[in-house]
């Protein structure tokens, strides 16, 4: 689906955003956002991002269909605000892992993350015909967990001391939504 069709079909006028496919011209935004403390501190993977590393991600993941990545844009200005994606696309089992980051500070705390998640879920279940979308989130990231729940994700597991970050072990929450759960929320 091209960018114009995405903008028309995957938009939320109430919060003023739309999704569009990522392009190589977005690399500068992705690298800056992922290297910001506000974004990096919420990720399990915290290694510094480089343009070369992101180009490798695009070539080996996005271009091959192992990941689907969209840019969250401001509906009024077309300014990129962040990104939503699914990775580890598993066509045999019809599932993928969801991720999001809002790089622009002005986009946080306004419901944009929840709206972007809902749009990406619709894309995943309608266009890609996935059965299951799941995610991992640090258990202390309460605002993100609330946002995911509003989008329809359900907590499935709490993994105690699962990752070692910031010189301590941290818990991880697994969440998921199934296609029929998403469909029942649309009625």
CATH superfamily: Gcn5-related N-acetyltransferase (GNAT)
Number of strands: 8
Q: How much is the average pLDDT?
A: 94
Largest sheet: 8 strands, mixed
Which geometry do the CA atoms define?
globular
Distance between the termini: 25 Å
- At CATH level 2, the architecture is 3-Layer(aba) Sandwich
State the CATH topology. Aminopeptidase
Order of helices and strands: HEEHHHEEEHEHEEH
Beta fraction: 25-35%
> Which residues form runs of ≥5 with pLDDT under 50?
none
The strand order across the widest sheet is 1-2-3-4-5-6-8-7
CATH classification class: Alpha Beta
Provide the helix percentage: 25-40%
Please state the CA-atom Rg, rounded to the nearest Å: 16 Å
Question: What does this 3D model show about the protein?
Answer:
With 187 residues, the protein is an alpha+beta fold. The protein has a single domain (3-134), classed as Gcn5-related N-acetyltransferase (GNAT) (Aminopeptidase), CATH 3.40.630. It is 35% helix and 34% strand. The chain is built from 7 helices and 8 strands, in the order αββαααβββαβαββα. α5 crosses α6 (142-151). The longest helix is centred in the middle third of the chain and has 16 residues, at 112-127. The radius of gyration is 16 Å and the shape is globular.
Please summarize what this structure is.
This protein is α+β, with helices and mostly antiparallel strands and 187 residues long. The chain has helices at 3-9, 27-35, 37-40, 51-62, 112-127, 142-151, 179-186; strands at residues 11-12, 17-21, 68-74, 80-90, 95-102, 132-138, 154-165, 168-178.
């Amino acid at each position: 689906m091209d960018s114009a069709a995405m903008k028309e079909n995957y938009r939320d006028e109430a919060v003023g955003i739309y999704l569009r496919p990522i392009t190589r011209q977005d690399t500068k935004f992705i690298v800056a956002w992922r290297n910001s403390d506000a974004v990096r501190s919420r990720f399990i993977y915290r290694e510094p991002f480089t343009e070369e590393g992101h180009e490798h991600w695009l070539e080996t993941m996005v271009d091959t269909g192992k990941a689907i990545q969209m840019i969250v844009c401001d509906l009024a200005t077309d300014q990129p605000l962040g990104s939503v994606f699914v990775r580890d696309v598993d066509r045999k089992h019809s599932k993928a892992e969801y991720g999001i980051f809002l790089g622009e500070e002005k986009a946080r705390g306004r419901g944009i993350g929840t709206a972007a998640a809902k749009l990406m879920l619709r894309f995943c279940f309608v266009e890609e015909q996935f059965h299951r979308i799941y995610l991992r989130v640090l258990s202390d990231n309460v605002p993100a967990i609330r946002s995911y729940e509003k989008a329809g994700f359900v907590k499935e597991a709490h993994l105690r001391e699962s990752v070692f970050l910031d010189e301590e072990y941290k818990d991880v929450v697994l969440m998921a939504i199934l296609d029929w759960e998403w469909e029942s929320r649309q009625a």
